């Protein structure tokens, strides 16, 4: 339809009869409600008047508003043009001079039209609409009925343009094998039962659903798992009087067939149902849910699933091929008769055939998806390592760490083991944990008994979990010691390792000789652990202190040596040197800064660059007040209280600190002066680096300020020191 020609067609004006009807149509005023409150509107007997004619093969319908006609207006508000042959319609808005493609129910009608149920059209007009459009109703209803049909046809055509290529692609789907239904019933659906009649003396015969025979049974119990004595399949015993209707779990099944592009993996789902009292005639149901098309080199091309398409119909819909990260459990039985010919060509470089021989239930789509990312999976499958194959499929990304030489074509080099270890790996059906222990053997050059390796794997213990003791005991000794402790104390392996590790950390904290077998291999481990907890007080601090002493063994000795130089008490304040690591950790917790958690401070104490001291009020020496970081000459790098702040009272305390610095200067020896010079050099280097990097504080009250500026302002140098820098206790 050409819009210019449509506008040049004859205008259908309101007829005298229509004008007379509108004049006599007195509106009724009604009350409505909206978000603004009460509103009023007028309702006419006929909310809309219509007139239609066929002009040049097109149906033209004019729409008039009663309020306009009562004011003497004869021109239509809208004009609808319908071309049935082309299946198109257009509406012209005469008031705004614009064309609209909307249906009648979507036009911007006045409120009075929407509230009026009746719409007027002459009998001749009704008949003309029905005859021209071929619809059941005339008038407004018939016009809308036709428009809805046009829109439905247009939508169907749009859908068809999308779905036709899918249907064309799926025309290459092969027919199902002739024995498919029997395979589904016997093999694909894996759950089977033995039904029997309950007898107080014990039933002696039952019906096996797999071999479909009456078999001898002995003392069966309802819902108990077992095996059929005839076919040896796993079954569940069901007493007919108790079972009712029985349904198997829904199983996944796969059919791999050759097609034009390469091959297709078809996924099915199915179950069996046994009606109450009828165990010999099961209802078997199966349906196809997915089709994936692969190329001749097993590369994924396209995939489809059976589902609801745009809420219009149920059909095959295009989707993405299986992703290696797919986490669902799609494992199922795979139809075997089509595999040999595919394995000779399309699947020859995948290892899928070998993987299916070792793992009867598998998701072949997931296997090929992982293979695309981990090509070494083919080597594992062809070497018949089912556990490694399954673990690789379940977490392929982290599994890469198991390969020592990923680019190697040799399986031994790939896994980082020798031929004898490979035989052990296969014999024990080892997984990644077993492989890690073999790699550990290779690294240390010492062979472990299979019994120990299997036990460690079963308990989920890897070599890295035993590093805390591996320097003092062999893995065989650890194996025997752990089993004995677990047997005597009833602890799990995880609890035992945690107890052992904590015990050694606390022993280190108490400066016990942890290299002595009597200590590290305590006969009554749990008892010794509990005794050290009592000695150490707070266990968490003791464990952390043990770790710190392991890295910085001289921290507490250095603090003891400095007491004579730096401890001093005045009338109002006192400077205290902590004796133990736990005291510094508790200070950091009470004042909520990280002086006890940052390794930087322990490192500085260890190399005598600076020390952590406590500033206390003389009236309460046990209560935390300010934490100080000072250099060997008494220069105060930092002074921080709650949440790394400085309150106004620090001004009064600084007077005492000046007095304290003079005392320190008198007590210093040549050794402290030499250390102070080195400390100043390190401090200045650090300060220059902070200025160059323009480091900004990102938390606390000092957030947004340059770290170098804050540290410079905080510095209180002694007369023998120079200006410098340190990191804040929030660093």
Could you say which overall geometry the principal axes of the C-alpha atoms support? flat
Helical percentage = 40-55%
**Over the alpha carbons, how many angstroms does the gyration radius reach?**
44 Å
List low-pLDDT spans: 721-731
For the residues shown, what is the average pLDDT?
Answer: 88
β-sheet strand percentage: 15-25%
Largest sheet: 8 strands, mixed
Terminal-residue CA separation: 76 Å
Label the structural class. alpha+beta
Number of DSSP helices?
30
Total beta strand runs:
26
Question: How many structural domains?
Answer: 4
Descriptive overview:
The protein has 731 residues and is an alpha+beta fold. The chain folds into 4 domains: 3-153, no CATH class; 244-402, no CATH class; 467-548, no CATH class; 554-714, no CATH class. The protein contains 30 helices and 26 strands. Strands 14, 15, 16, 17, 18, 19, 20 and 21 form an 8-stranded mixed beta sheet that branches. The protein is flat.
Topology (SSEs and partners):
Layout: H1 3-8, H2 16-24, E1 28-34, E2 37-43, E3 48-55, E4 58-64, H3 66-70, E5 78-83, E6 88-93, E7 98-100, H4 111-115, E8 119-121, H5 123-133, H6 139-169, H7 180-188, E9 193-196, E10 205-208, E11 213-216, E12 225-227, E13 234-239, H8 240-243, E14 246-247, E15 251-258, E16 263-274, E17 283-294, E18 300-309, E19 313-319, E20 332-334, H9 339-344, H10 352-358, E21 361-362, H11 364-373, H12 377-382, H13 386-394, H14 396-399, H15 411-415, H16 419-427, H17 432-444, H18 450-458, H19 467-470, H20 475-489, H21 493-509, H22 517-520, H23 525-536, H24 539-551, H25 555-566, E22 568-569, E23 573-576, H26 581-591, H27 599-606, E24 611-617, E25 626-630, E26 636-640, H28 650-667, H29 670-693, H30 707-714
Parallel strand pairs: 3-8, 9-13, 15-20
Antiparallel strand pairs: 1-2, 3-4, 4-5, 5-6, 6-7, 9-10, 10-11, 12-13, 14-16, 15-16, 16-17, 17-18, 18-19, 20-21, 22-23, 23-24, 24-25, 25-26
Helix pairs in contact: 5-6, 17-18, 21-23, 21-24, 24-26
């Amino acid at each position: 339809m050409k819009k210019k020609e449509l506008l040049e067609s004859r205008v259908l004006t309101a007829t005298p009869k229509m004008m007379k009807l509108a004049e006599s149509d007195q509106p009724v005023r009604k009350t409505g409600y909206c978000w603004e409150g009460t509103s009023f509107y007028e309702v006419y007997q006929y909310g809309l008047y219509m007139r239609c004619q066929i002009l040049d093969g097109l149906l033209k319908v004019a729409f008039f508003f009663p309020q306009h006609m009562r004011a003497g207006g004869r021109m239509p508000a809208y004009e609808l043009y319908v071309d049935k042959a082309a299946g198109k319609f257009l509406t012209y808005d005469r008031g705004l001079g614009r064309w609209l493609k909307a249906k009648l129910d979507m036009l911007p009608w006045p409120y009075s039209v929407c509230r009026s149920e009746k719409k007027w059209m002459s009998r001749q007009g009704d008949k003309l609409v029905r005859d021209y459009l071929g619809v059941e109703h005339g008038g407004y209803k018939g016009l809308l009925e036709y428009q809805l049909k046009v829109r439905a046809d247009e939508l169907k055509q749009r859908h068809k343009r999308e779905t036709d290529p899918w249907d064309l692609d799926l025309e290459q789907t092969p027919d199902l094998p002739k024995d498919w239904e029997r395979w589904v019933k016997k093999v694909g659906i894996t759950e089977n039962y033995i039904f029997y009649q309950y007898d107080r003396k014990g039933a002696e015969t039952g019906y096996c659903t797999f071999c479909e025979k009456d078999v001898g049974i002995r003392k069966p119990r309802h819902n108990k798992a077992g095996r059929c004595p005839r076919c040896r399949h796993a079954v569940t015993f069901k007493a007919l009087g108790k079972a009712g209707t029985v349904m198997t779990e829904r199983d996944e099944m796969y059919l791999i067939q050759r097609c034009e592009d390469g091959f297709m993996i078809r996924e099915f789902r199915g179950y069996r149902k046994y009606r109450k009292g009828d165990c010999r005639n099961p209802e078997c149901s199966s349906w196809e849910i997915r089709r994936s098309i692969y190329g001749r080199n097993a590369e994924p091309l396209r995939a489809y699933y059976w589902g609801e398409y745009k809420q219009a119909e149920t059909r095959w819909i295009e989707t993405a091929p299986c992703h290696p990260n797919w986490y669902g459990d799609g494992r199922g039985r795979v139809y075997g008769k089509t595999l040999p010919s595919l394995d000779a060509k399309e699947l020859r470089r995948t290892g899928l055939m070998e993987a299916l021989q070792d793992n009867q239930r598998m998701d072949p789509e997931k296997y090929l998806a992982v293979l695309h990312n981990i090509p070494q999976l083919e080597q594992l499958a062809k070497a018949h390592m089912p556990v490694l194959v399954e673990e690789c499929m379940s977490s392929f990304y982290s599994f890469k760490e198991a390969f020592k030489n990923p680019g190697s074509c040799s399986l031994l080099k790939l896994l980082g083991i020798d031929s004898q270890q490979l035989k052990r790996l296969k014999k024990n059906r080892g997984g990644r944990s077993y492989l890690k222990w073999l790699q550990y053997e290779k690294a240390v050059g010492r062979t472990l008994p299979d019994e120990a390796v299997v036990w460690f794997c079963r308990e989920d213990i890897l070599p890295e979990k035993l590093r805390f003791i591996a320097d003092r005991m062999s893995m065989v000794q650890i194996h025997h010691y752990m089993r004995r402790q677990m047997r005597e104390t009833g602890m799990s392996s995880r609890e035992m390792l945690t107890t052992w590790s904590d015990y050694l950390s606390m022993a280190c904290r108490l400066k016990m000789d942890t290299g002595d077998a009597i200590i590290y291999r305590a006969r009554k481990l749990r008892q010794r652990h509990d005794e050290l907890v009592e000695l150490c007080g707070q266990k968490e601090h003791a464990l952390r202190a043990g770790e710190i002493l392991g890295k910085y063994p001289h921290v507490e000795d250095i603090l003891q040596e400095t007491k004579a130089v730096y401890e001093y008490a005045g009338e109002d304040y006192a400077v205290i040197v902590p004796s133990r690591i736990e005291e510094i950790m508790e200070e950091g917790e009470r004042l909520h800064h990280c002086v006890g958690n940052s390794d930087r401070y322990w490192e500085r104490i260890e190399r005598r660059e600076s020390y952590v001291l406590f500033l206390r009020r003389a009236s309460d020496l046990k209560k935390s007040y300010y934490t100080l970081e000072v250099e060997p000459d008494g220069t105060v790098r930092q002074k921080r209280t709650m949440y790394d702040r400085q309150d106004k009272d620090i001004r009064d305390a600084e007077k005492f600190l000046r007095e304290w610095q003079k005392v320190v200067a008198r007590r210093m020896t040549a050794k402290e002066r030499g250390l102070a010079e080195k400390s100043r050099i390190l401090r200045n280097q650090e300060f220059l680096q902070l200025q160059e990097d323009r480091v900004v504080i990102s938390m606390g009250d000092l957030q947004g300020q340059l770290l170098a500026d804050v540290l410079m302002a905080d510095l209180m140098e002694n007369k023998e020191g120079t200006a410098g820098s340190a990191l804040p206790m929030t660093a």
